[in-house]
Each structure stands twice: as C-alpha cells, then as structure tokens.
Amino acid sequence: MSLTASWLAGRLTEEGHQVALLSGELTVEQRADVIQRFRTGKEKVLVTTNVCSRGIDVEQVTLVVNFDLPVDMEGNADNETYLHRIGRTGRFGRRGFAVNMVDSERSMELIRQIERHFNRSISRLDPGSLQEMELLIS
Asked: What is d(CA 135, CA 118) in angstroms, rounded to the nearest whole number?
C-alpha cells in the first residue's frame, strides 16, 4: 500500500473525517466494499492510489485532489493517468473540480507538462483564499 495514501488517510481520520482507503493491495471483494461504503455515504472521503484512476464511477464525486501528480517510468507527467484521475469528477452531467497539490518546482514542472500536453491552462489558487475557492464552486 502506498505510504503516502496510508499517511494521508490517517491524517484525515485524525482530523475527524470519515475516510475510506482504496489501494491495489486490497482484494476485489475488499475494494467493492470500500467503494460501496463511499457510495452510500458511510465514508465521505476516499483516498486512493492509482487503482481508482480508471473504471470506477461514483456519481456523487464532485472533487478530486491530486495529492501527488502521476508520473510515468521516466519521471515525466503521466498525462493519460492524470486525465483518468480528474475524470472521476464532474460526471453524469454534474459539475466537478480537480485540485492539484503543488509543493515544489518539480511538481510545478509536472503541471506545465500537463498544460502543454492538453493545451489547457491550469488555474493557480491561493490556498489562503477561501473566497477564491468559494467563487469556483458557486
């Protein structure tokens, strides 16, 4: 299991959130149980590894947060995985948002690679401005 995913799920749980953790180490039955608990609202936050980037449709997902941006074997942005990850939100005619955590020049370079690949600009949000974030979701 990804150490980052485990750590993040633990931190969110410590903060009082109802968190489900989905990773490739789980059996098919365990994964189905985790997804079902998330779908029914028993857990409100789903922390996943790349196992969830494809093939899982949960209608109520409105926000995807890329804590770590996906990279390929050469260390470049994995554009296809990125697209599948952010495609988990805003489905079924609903509005959705994707937020990328950028904490270094390396992760900023990955963002630039993704922007070039898709010929799209990714807006920068000020993490200290709740007003800016509220405007996006209203």
From this structure: 25
pTM for the full model?
0.79
3-state helix, strand, coil split of the chain in percent (to 5) is 40, 15, 45
Burial of 47 (0-12, 13-18, 19+ CB in 10 A): buried
Strand, coil or helix: 47: strand
Comparing CA positions, the residue from 95, 94, 98, 3 lying closest to residue 53 is 98
The pLDDT of 93-121, averaged and rounded, is: 93
User: Which residue in 16, 66, 23 sits closest to 44, CA to CA?
Assistant: 16
CATH classification for the domain delimited by 3-137, as one of 3.30.497.10, 3.10.129.10, 3.40.50.300, 3.30.1130.10:
3.40.50.300
In the chain, the percentage of residues whose pLDDT exceeds 70 is 92
pLDDT tops 70 at residue 11: yes
Token pair for residue 29? Answer: 């039955």
The answer to whether 5 touches 23, Cβ cutoff 8 Å, is yes
Which of 120, 117, 1 lies closest to 49, judged by CA? 1
